[in-house]
Amino acid sequence: MNPKVDAFISDAKKWQAEIEHLRQLLLDCGLTEEFKWRAPCYSFQGNNVVLIGCFKNYCTLSFFKGTLLQDSKGFLSKPGENSQAMRFFKFTNAQEIQELKPIIKNYIYEAIEIEKAGLKVVFKSNTALELVEEFQIVLDKNPSLNTAFKALTPGRQRAYNLYFSAAKQSKKRQTRIENYIPRILNGKGINDCVCGMSKKMPSCDGSHKHIS
Length: 212
Hints:
Layout: H1 3-11, H2 16-28, E1 32-36, E2 39-44, E3 47-54, E4 59-63, E5 87-91, H3 94-99, H4 101-116, H5 133-141, H6 143-151, H7 154-166, H8 170-185
Antiparallel strand pairs: 1-2, 2-3, 3-4, 4-5
């Protein structure tokens, strides 16, 4: 058992019993307990397999290569619409975990076999992003901005485009675009912190002020 996980459970305001149940399940399956991204992470021969997550209304057991698992009964969910690899179980109480224990173990063992076989998730190439009209016009007029935007990761590009397009009025879209030009030129995503990490990711410890 990793002492950092012990501290994580002790500090948890909610889901302590659920985390303990999941932890024991994962250890029983022979996985190595680590602490990554400020959360309990379980690996097999150095490869990440499962991550325990805690949220306001539920806790999760997330499989890094969940898309490769056989999920005929539909127990697993996608973290987001564009998630290509990770899939997770969602739990709201310890009894639910106990009742599903044999099923959860089967998923864990299958995930371990995936690592033993060296299987990889084949990521689909991103389709061309259709930019909001006002932003496309600005990019066409500003080669430096266009270059900086294309240098961002596809996820960061989508995040900007979604934010700009969410404004209903053209004037509001233009204002949003102007406000974020400096960030794009600095190579930062809309959710990036001053530390370079996404303020949505647990890697950022929040010890400094985020850029708004």
